[in-house]
Amino acid sequence: MKKLLTLSMIGLVLGSTAHAAEFKAPPLAQFAPEAGNYTLEVWSWVPGLAETAKKFEKLYPNIKIKVTNLGGGPNTYTKLLTSIKAGSGGPDVAQIEYGFLPSFIDTGGLSDLTPMGVNKVKNLFVPWTWGQVSPDGKGVYAIPQDSGPFAMIYNKAILDKYKIKVPTTWDQYAVAAENLYKASNGQVQLGNFYSTFAPWFVALVWADGGQLFNRNGEQWTQTLNSPNAKKVLAYWDGLIKKGYIGTLPAFSADYNNAVGAGKIASAMEAAWGPNGYVDNHKDKMSGQWRVADLPQWSKVGKKGSGNWGGSSNVVMKQSKYPKAGLLFSVWLNSSQEAIEANWDISTLFTAASAGLTLPKLNDTTTTTSKFFGGQNVVGFYAKAAKAVNPDFKWAPWFTFSNDNFNKQLDAMVKGKMTSDQALDAWQEESLKFARNEGYNVK
Predict the structure, then answer these.
(1) What pLDDT is stored for residue 97 in this prediction?
(2) Is the separation of the CB atoms in 331 and 59 below 8 Å?
(3) Strand ranges (DSSP E) for 31-110?
(4) Which of 35, 55, 133, 206 sits in a 20 to 30 Å window from 302, CA-based?
(5) What span, in angstroms and rounded, lies between the C-alpha atoms of 37 and 30?
(6) What would the pLDDT profile of 187-210 be if each residue is shown by its tens digit?
(7) Could you tell me the CA-to-CA distances from 75 to 2, 45, 91, 271 in Å, in that order?
(8) Which of 413, 395, 383 is nearest to 151 (CA)?
């Protein structure tokens, strides 16, 4: 999961040299830190963040940044929750994924940044990412860091070999999957369903305009088995049952080996996904792969995309230096200096829209670009970023739903449940958990 959350690539527009002059610097002078000499403790799983932070220390010599890398995921979150309950022992600034941010907001352990003027930088970020850090549209509890809008990547060499056209709709994708499977005598599958990653499936529902959670005051509505969700899962289940699509665990050796052997010809990947293929297959497959828009359910109308992954930086309530924590978070995620350092050191793509126009982030001479046939990979994810629905919400109990998804999908893949039954069970068990936790949800 660490790579999954740090190799993020998103964008809004294609970069060129002319764009450099258009970069909008954050109004850092409006975020005055606390006086005195002190150290900010930052918990993050971004590789090389300590190196990037040194640039901040040069701008603000009285503030030292101590970065602690807990590896992300459960390790970080368990320790954060422990410190919130204890009221001490936590960091000043922490990294939290969008999908899990609401659960931390509900603990009361995060600072609402609006009294400190955080909305002064709202327009610096991709609009839908700001919606993720302000779930109720009032308080703002984090600064967006990165995200993962969806597009399709595919092995052009394989599709060319079997004379398969690149699908632009899901109907075309299903036909292509059948034709490729039959033309290759069952040796090549067009794609793979990530049955152990709920956010991957959620991103596909999100792209179709679906909503899984909604909040009206203290009243929640959960619709994990919505018509959109049932349509999407039934579609993939049909392809799985015919053998046209695989179900290998994502990020596993089996999956990487299948890709390397040319047995999987495409994938629906978040913006951080392409770098993983480059890391694992650049020596054998460089130049063979391409990026394309996510297939759509209709040939007409506005294109949609969803998001998988992405994180934010929060300021903890127990911090003695909340103003400095906000200043560091704003600088880290919206200043040109930090954006370029994060890219050079960590290959981290920012959620700041102006940052994504920088030439450094749109260089088509990189190893990643060469792997994808010289394409500006960011350019395709730029379109995807603009197509993500900004109103999508997460629930505070998504941690349970995230884990429970694996149980239901395992039963579906093994033929013990239909796709509708799997979603109904996901809905029922998540609903029961949420109510037992005291949420007013229907």
Answers:
(1) 95
(2) yes
(3) 38-43, 63-68, 93-97
(4) 133
(5) 20
(6) 999 999 999 999 999 999 999 999
(7) 11, 10, 14, 24
(8) 383
SS3 content of the chain, % helix, strand, coil (to 5): 50, 15, 35
The reply to whether 2-148+308-362 and 150-305+392-441 are identical in fold is: yes
By the 10 Å C-beta count (0-12 exposed, 13-18 middle, 19+ buried), 23 is classed as middle
Q: How far apart are CA 411 and CA 422, in angstroms?
A: 7
Report the C-alpha gap between 186 and 169 in whole angstroms: 23
Residue 230 C-beta-side C-alpha neighbours within 13 Å: 11
Distance of alpha carbon 278 from alpha carbon 326, whole angstroms: 35
d(C-alpha 166, C-alpha 172), whole Å: 8
- Residue range 176-182: mean pLDDT, rounded: 98
Residues 98-124 have a mean pLDDT of: 96
The CATH superfamily holding the domain 2-148+308-362 is Periplasmic binding protein-like II (3.40.190.10)
Those residues with Cβ within 8 angstroms of residue 206's Cβ, 6 or more apart along the chain or in another chain: 305, 306, 307, 388, 389, 392
The model's confidence at residue 1, banded by pLDDT at 50, 70 and 90, is very low
Across 156-170, average pLDDT: 98
Q: Where are the domains of the chain?
A: 2-148+308-362, 150-305+392-441
**What is the token pair recorded at 87?**
């009221």
Q: Which segments of 87-169 does DSSP mark as H helices, in order?
A: 101-107, 127-133, 156-161
Q: For the segment 308-340, what is each residue's pLDDT rounded down to a tens digit? A: 999 999 999 999 999 999 999 999 999 999 998
Q: H or E element: which one contains 345?
A: helix 336-346
The pLDDT score that the predictor gives to residue 238 is 98
Rounded Cα–Cα distance for residues 301 and 276 (Å): 32
The arrangement of secondary structure in 150-305+392-441, i.e. its CATH architecture, is 3-Layer(aba) Sandwich (3.40)
Question: Residue for token digits 């963040």?
Answer: 49
